[in-house]
Amino acid sequence: MKKIQMVDLGSQYHRLKSEIDQAISSVLESCAFINGPEVKIFQQELESYLNIKHVIPCANGTDALQIAMMAYDFQPEDEVITADFTFIATAEVIALLKLRPVLVDVDPEYFTLDPEQVRKAITPKTKAIVPVHLFGQCADMKPLLEIAQEHNLIVIEDVAQALGANHNGFENPLKAGAIGDIGCTSFFPSKNLGCYGDGGAIFTQDDNIAAKIRMIVNHGQSKQYYHDSIGVNSRLDSIQAAILKVKLKYLDDFNEKRNIVANFYNQQFANQPKVITPKTAPYSTHVYHQYTMQIVGADRWKLREFLSERNIPSMIYYPVPLHLQKAYLDARYQLGDFPITEKLCETVLSLPISTEMDMEQLTYITNSVNEFLA
Length: 374
Known about the structure:
Layout: H1 9-30, H2 37-50, E1 54-58, H3 61-71, E2 79-83, H4 89-96, E3 100-104, H5 115-121, E4 126-130, H6 141-151, E5 154-158, E6 166-167, E7 174-175, E8 182-186, E9 200-204, H7 207-216, E10 221-223, E11 226-227, H8 238-248, H9 251-268, E12 275-276, E13 291-295, H10 300-309, H11 339-347, E14 348-351, H12 359-373
Parallel strand pairs: 2-3, 2-4, 4-5, 5-8
Antiparallel strand pairs: 1-9, 6-7, 8-9, 10-11, 12-13, 13-14
């Protein structure tokens, strides 16, 4: 049996090897390593895929979130609402900009931002909402946009885990990242659309915000050596853009293959009372960046050890809520304030999922899980 990995990047590369090698070779021959033509072409093709006016590539997903917030000129102590159950980068950039992260609990079924909790958290200092499209499906954007409109708030989508997902809650389906005022993503290698290093991008329909972001990512300049605003140095290099250009053609196919894996897992655990399989929200498609189930009535850590002994990797995304992380301890929040998030952190377990998994691997994984839980 082929070695099981959380994400099998090697097999995916070998499937696309000729195209990717040619794309990299083209950049090496041109020596246009920074802002070469591949960056512009990839940007345009991603704009077309998302049906959005502006894609601005940058160095990574964390930069994308930070730059998005810089573009709106938030002031120190302005409040930004986001989910307690997410990767640290979502709150990290808020704190780095001297803004105030306001954490709220998530929906117990879909693990994304709970709109009613968001409504309760709004104060006169609130400036923005950052919904996280977690594990591969969209947050409940329609009520979040209505809340934002009522209170004149900016909506910044964190789409790092759900590129390619569709939100079907509007008159016409919208792609994750093209729903709010601005979208941010990561092209980290393990993402559904991943490069072979770091990379990210920012999306918007707003011409003025797009122009401002283009200055920010380039040291605050629109003309070389004339700096109109405080900026950063955050670029997607040409080799990574060339790789992403190849892989973008296959993104929907990648996501379909991930759904096949997830559906198999769901079927094999359907009658297992100690597993709660992930649910897909009625308003969203799911692209399964992670297959994250919950383990109830069993020791999750011992299950991980059992799987590891059988050479089956697994991960816990995430073991500690943001409000209990040492770097983000805040007198406003105590243990017990976010019961859904705290329960998820105690029960979630993610199994391997990627585009290259075969039936032998999947059967071995599910049989092993069921054997331990029997």
